[in-house]
């Protein structure tokens, strides 16, 4: 957490490319739909998923697929203005695996917030959370601007309620909220919010912000165990590293590029191999929050680092193995990836 004077702020890091996610969240949304009389087929429309996928708890899906399920749910139940709250209350720490266990065993809310924000990509959140300290008062901001407008209100409600649920689980009976501001339109009946939070939010504000009571961050948590929390955090770090490895169509493209890095195929060639049009390939990669160029750069960067650190090759030899016409083109690309030249990188590596 960086600080300036009496004000400090921290946000969960942005993602170079959103990793795939467990289908468990979609399973919860489908069950919610079923409880309201909406058929599973309606929920899965335009997602590429079927009932067989839902039965596989180990299935990994793209974030865009979950957003489409949410869009289908919202379209099917337009008369439920707080449907997102109802969804979020179904998200308990146990469904998150080791990330949830790390939160449950955090010694203080401050430690909990640190782990939650750092490894937020292990959750199902689409909202981006930020923690701010101002003269000892802590508040959490919720940024929903990157969420498609059709499901923005639903996802804001869902992730907001899931966050409140998590705090309630680690601090049973506690009411740590001093004030809650939401940009959402004020509902005709705010009772669901009051039952969830223990107070009535202020609606139609400039931003989404939850302000905590003074001293909240450093209160001891009843199930806190620093040693267990640290072990869970290490596991979260390894899990997130693995999860951020490309999956889905991105994995297929990446693997194909790795086969011939000295003569990388074009977007058109890979689209032909996958029996897709170029437009479809671009669109599906975009749904996985990446692009053909980003994947090609990722492959070349990984191989360049390996060749620079594991083999005694000259720069023009490395350039040739990566398909560059000359060392100058490779040096320019490497600087764009890392901010330093291959020579500087290699010198620093061997120095370390």
Q: Can you tag this structure with a few keywords?
A:
352 residues; alpha+beta; 6-stranded antiparallel beta sheet; two-stranded antiparallel ribbon; disordered N terminus
Give a verbal description of the structure.
By secondary structure, this protein is of the alpha+beta class. The protein is 51% helix and 10% strand. It is built from 17 helices and eight strands. It has helices at residues 24-35, 40-43, 51-54, 63-76, 83-88, 98-104, 109-118, 149-170, 191-197, 226-243, 249-259, 267-273, 278-287, 292-310, 315-321, 327-338, 342-351, and strands at residues 2-4, 7-11, 21-22, 60-61, 128-134, 137-143, 177-181, 208-212. A six-stranded antiparallel sheet has the order 1-2-5-6-8-7, covered by helices on one side. The protein has a two-stranded antiparallel sheet with strand order 3-4. β1 (2-4) and β2 form a beta hairpin. α15 packs across α16. Residues 1-10 and 12-18 have low confidence and may be disordered.
Briefly characterize the structure:
The protein has 352 residues and is of the alpha+beta class.
- What's the helical proportion of residues? 40-55%
Describe the biggest sheet? 6 strands, antiparallel
Give the distance, in angstroms, between the N- and C-terminal Cα atoms: 26 Å
User: DSSP strand (E) fraction?
Assistant: 5-15%
Shape: globular
| Radius of gyration, in angstroms, nearest whole number | 23 Å
Number of strands: 8
Strand order of the largest sheet: 1-2-5-6-8-7
Number of helices: 17
Low-confidence stretches: 1-10, 12-18
Given helix and strand content, the structural type is alpha+beta
Overall pLDDT score? 86
State the order of secondary-structure elements, H for helix, E for strand. Answer: EEEHHHEHHHHEEHEHEHHHHHHHH
């Amino acid at each position: 957490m960086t600080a300036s004077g009496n004000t400090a702020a921290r946000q969960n890091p942005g993602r170079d490319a959103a990793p795939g996610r467990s289908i468990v969240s979609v399973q919860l949304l489908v069950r919610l739909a079923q409880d309201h009389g909406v058929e599973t087929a309606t929920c899965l429309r335009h997602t590429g998923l079927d009932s067989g996928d839902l039965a596989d708890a180990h299935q990994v899906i793209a974030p865009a697929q979950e957003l489409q399920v949410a869009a289908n749910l919202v379209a099917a139940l337009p008369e439920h203005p707080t449907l997102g709250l109802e969804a979020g209350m179904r998200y308990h720490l146990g469904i998150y695996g080791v990330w949830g266990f790390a939160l449950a065993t955090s010694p203080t809310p401050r430690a909990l917030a640190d782990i939650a924000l750092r490894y937020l990509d292990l959750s199902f959140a689409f909202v981006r959370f930020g923690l701010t300290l101002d003269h000892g008062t802590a508040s959490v901001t919720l940024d929903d601007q990157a969420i498609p407008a059709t499901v923005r209100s639903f996802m804001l409600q869902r992730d907001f309620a899931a966050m409140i649920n998590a705090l309630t689980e680690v601090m049973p009976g506690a009411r740590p909220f001093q004030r809650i501001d939401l940009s959402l339109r004020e509902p005709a009946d705010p009772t669901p919010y009051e039952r969830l939070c223990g107070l009535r939010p202020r609606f139609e504000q400039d931003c989404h912000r939850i302000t905590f009571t003074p001293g909240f961050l450093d209160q001891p948590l009843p199930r806190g165990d620093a040693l267990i929390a640290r072990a869970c955090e290490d596991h979260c770090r390894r899990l997130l590293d693995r999860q951020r490895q490309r999956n889905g169509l991105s994995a297929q493209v990446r693997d194909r590029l790795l086969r011939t890095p000295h003569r990388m195929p074009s977007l058109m060639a890979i689209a032909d191999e996958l029996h897709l049009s170029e437009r479809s390939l671009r669109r599906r990669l975009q749904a996985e929050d990446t692009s053909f160029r980003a994947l090609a750069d990722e492959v070349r960067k990984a191989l360049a680092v390996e060749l620079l650190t594991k083999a005694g090759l000259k720069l023009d030899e490395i350039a040739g193995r990566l398909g560059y016409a000359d060392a100058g083109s490779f040096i320019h690309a490497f600087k764009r990836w890392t901010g330093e030249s291959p020579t500087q990188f290699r010198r620093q590596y061997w120095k370390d």
